[in-house]
Write a structure and sequence with these properties.
Strand order of the largest sheet: 1-2
Largest sheet: 2 strands, antiparallel
Radius of gyration: 24 Å
Oligomer: single chain
Shape: elongated
Number of strands: 4
């Protein structure tokens, strides 16, 4: 599909068709990462937003598999890494 470049304030902009937005599951306010290839092609990639709840869940699960024991703390103290 051909897209037109238009003036938007002091910049130039490209409008993405609604079909493209729906197909890529983008929403208003999402962020895209733009990259320029060696031959001048432009690639737009959606960035993943930070999900704090999912991150904390993953950290809790990881922490449960790696308990810190008194022996670990004592080793750190002896190595001056405490």
């Amino acid at each position: 599909m051909r897209l037109h470049i238009r003036k938007w304030g002091n910049s130039l902009a490209v409008r993405l068709p609604a079909d493209y937005i729906r197909a890529s599951s983008l929403q208003n306010g999402d962020i895209l990462e733009a990259a320029i290839g060696p031959t001048g092609e432009i690639t737009l990639t959606p960035t993943q937003s930070f999900d704090k709840a999912a991150f904390l869940k993953k950290i809790r699960k990881l922490r449960a598999t790696m308990p810190i024991t008194s022996a670990t703390v004592e080793t750190m103290r002896q190595a001056d890494r405490y």
